[in-house]
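Pinned message: reference record for MstO
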Amino acid sequence: MIKENPYIQKIASSAQDFLFFMIGAHGISQAIAVASRLGIPDLLSSEPKTVTWLAEKLECDRDNLERLLLCLCDMGFFTFKSDETIALNEVSEFLKSDHPQSLAVPASIRSYEYDWMPWGELYNTVKNGGVCFERVFHTDFYSYLSKNPEINQLFNKNMGNITRLTLFDSVVALLNVNDINHIVDVGGGKGDLIITLLKKNEHLKGTIFDQIHLESQAKKLILEHNLENRCEWIGGDFFQGIPSADALILSEILHGWNDVQALEIIKNCRKSISNKGKIFLIERVIDSKIDSHNIGDKSRNLINLTMAVFTGGKERTEGELRKLLEEAQFALEFIQPIKGWSGLKLIQAKSV
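Predicted structure (tokens):
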């Protein structure tokens, strides 16, 4: 269906059309985000609906809702049928909240001001340095989240969304924890990764360590999986200290912080484990600036730019990661690609 879309074919066949499309892509992103946030894909899951029906159901302005949906139909995200109803297609199926690989949450997030407003400061940040988000909101990204519970909950829901669970299965398949008795998931959110790990390794005990506001969600997940005897929750701040264990795992934590902050986190990790301890990092590793046809690898530079917009963090090369680890008294053992589209890699190091 995607290949048959004449609009997509036109974009793909003309450099000028491709550029013109990309110039206006922010509008398309917002249209997708609004449709997802309104819950339109879920309302269409049983059968196509008219714009009038959707407008009444959602209490929306009919004219503007129609413009939104016709735009998305033109772009191939929904289907406009001969009876003038709007239907899901193979693309918008992924925007249903109950789809096994749902993208509803990451799509919806794009409609919130905390996500789209910082990009408006990209010009000034490229010219003068700094962090876009801080220019707009006059605070750092993580402090903003801590002071805005609704946004924080949405952010953490996105970080643990169901598409990432496939990634966690791939991570767990790579981890050798046979000689480990206790592992701490540092910045573990509500615990999806460590729950997956514990279910595959019955000898293992685990700790979810993250900010205190995630306590109820994490404890609920622990109980749902009957792991209350093997998994605990500890709230805290990894800049202040990290619970002791045989091993630690940090999933996409370091890229959210600059080099000084990342080193402080890694040093605190080293303080919390023994001389034979291990640390597992899940991060994107920049092997070269641009050379890959892999979608996951191509996204790394966009994510690297996104870090500049939101946190001042960065994606790092193997050399940069090795330097951070060595300065914190860890020795890099190996870096291994993680199966999937994500472009992420598993980095294992041991304490020295």
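Pinned by admin. Summary line: The mean pLDDT is 91.
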